[in-house]
């Protein structure tokens, strides 16, 4: 780790390879001048990369926690009138590195990004979206590719080559950019119109670097991002040795995205989707055997044409097509 808190090297012991490109820094925070022609608080124009500053001044770097499960390094930085603190966490049993970040931002028309130059050979990147994912090119060979200098995504983005890849996860950010293997996550955009003090406040967020063997599908980046966004919460209660689960899914690529009471109040809605472009025979396991299960539309209207639900003890089975969204109403 460098004096400014960035990574000069990151070696994957399991895969036996460097994660970052040689002579380039990982977790380099970069501030771009951001003055779009129109819609200051919404737009990012393609020329924003022409003027930027790397936060490469010496920072306060301190090991703040050492334990059998986690090592934490705390980095404190400043930029003009703004202050930043990051708790960087390395885990004993996971390749994921978390950057738990606090920023007191006091700038105007500056764009803050975190960058990781992944040493991965690919011409495309994958981005998480609601109920699936999309793929975008990482080059600018065509006018369409040049126009995609900023890509929207929800919980993760990924670049992978044959047998290896790097994912960048987050818990609340949506702007991403990838050029030549360099992953950048947009952290703060501080426009001045119509609100002259946009983003001039305290921010708390977490992003994570997840190097992995195989592609994002084989490494289950989707699950890793879900774990970041929905961490385990310890509560005082229960009986030792006993477990309880309301609903679970058998089928690696099938995600149970929604559990809610039905709008008519007569049952519970389960909404699932397939996340890896595969046809899957899946099963939902419930805490007890349901009285009735019916497939519905997204508006919770019963699908009378074909049900395709196979009732089983404590649950039901079904077939889901690649990237399909399915909604079930369960009556107990």
Account of the 3D structure:
The chain has 332 residues and is mainly beta. 5% of the residues lie in helices and 47% in strands. The protein has three helices and 25 strands. It has helices at residues 143-147, 216-219, 221-229, and strands at residues 11-12, 17-18, 28-33, 52-54, 60-66, 70-79, 82-91, 97-104, 110-117, 124-129, 132-137, 151-152, 156-161, 164-170, 175-179, 182-189, 202-213, 247-250, 254-261, 268-274, 280-286, 292-296, 310-312, 315-320, 325-331. Strand 1 and strand 2 form a beta hairpin.
User: What is the alpha-carbon Rg in Å?
Assistant: 22 Å
Order of helices and strands: EEEEEEEEEEEHEEEEEEHHEEEEEEEE
Terminus-to-terminus distance: 55 Å
What coarse outline follows from CA principal-axis ratios?
A: globular
What does the average pLDDT come to? 94
Tally of separate helices? 3
Give the DSSP E fraction (strand runs of 2 or more residues).
over 45%
Main-sheet strand order equals: 5-6-7-8-17-14-13-10-11
Q: What percent of the residues sit in helical stretches (DSSP H or I)?
A: under 10%
List how many beta strands DSSP finds.
Answer: 25
Structural class: mainly beta
Main beta sheet? 9 strands, antiparallel
- Poorly predicted tracts of residues: none
